[in-house]
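Task 17 of the worksheet. Students: predict the tertiary structure of the chain below and write it out as structure tokens. Keep your answer in the requested format; marks are given for formatting as well as content.
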Amino acid sequence: MRILTVVGARPQFIKASAFSRAVRQRHTEILVHTGQHYDASMSDVFFDELALPRPDHHLGVGSGSHGAQTAQMLERLEAVMQREAPDRVVIYGDTNSTLAGALAAAKLGIPVAHVEAGLRSYVRDMPEEINRVVADRVSTHLFAPTQNAVGNLAREGITQGVTMTGDIMYDALLQHAPVAAQKSSILRDLALAPGGYVLATVHRAANTDDRHHLADIIDALALLHEPVILPLHPRTRAALMGTDIEIEAPVHVIDPVGYLDMLALEQGARMVLTDSGGVQKEAYLLGVPCVTLRDETEWVETLADGWNVLAGADATRILAAARRAPPAGDPPPVFGDGHAAERMVAALEAD
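Model answer:
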């Protein structure tokens, strides 16, 4: 079987590493990188660290408005799919690369397999929500990471082709967390003690493109009065330019880091503050309390027992959530058993 996999953004590289390892044992994979994340710190380092095969096609689309970026991806993906003639197209998550891959394949009559099907925030002005809903509608195989995702699809009348696989990022985390603990030197390089700092990430347009939201988040980080490590996403860095928002101690800005260093930072943090869906989930899987800088989450499972708290971009709510007592015990095991990729390959073979 010839399987064409579409990736373009940092979280998709992580998911693809687990899937590629499983699928290439018995099938041919054509890996296509749209170029959505093109900065070396957001792309190349992940291929190196995860031993992810180099893309067979790099489309070089880069940044742009949603319409322009998606249109370029759609045009270039269609040409690659026509040339490669795959039996299946695999897409991940909820980015513009996901949407373009789904539409290009569906219009060519190629069955689409959507990894992380069924996630919903129910916020329709969020670009990611549009992407994931449309991708689910045109997919033949819907790989749901949790039972809640299966339920979301059923409520929308989607039951055919749905497989509850477990979460593929859990596959990747189980493999790479021990490697990160051994190989990453970032805590030592930054003179950080385990449990002695907060890790924060901010990159969603709802926060970076709203000056008041961004200012409130940065203010809250400073008001924690404890070391805060902030790997600064290129979008956030650009948004800060030309504003009067200043990042001061104890917030320590660093450049974006690779997957192993990020896992090490997450494992060692007292708490994680983030607007990233993937980082929320990794914090939960590592047993690290999280504050989500949004008013909703597609990963509702992480809210169990207070492991994740929704605080939006309001400084008062962020501080209250960040100062809460840590949950007792371990997070409930809701993301599978670390064999999601194998279940996905089996489902593709069974069709």
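Marker's comment: The chain has a mean pLDDT of 94. The chain is about 45% helix and 15% strand.
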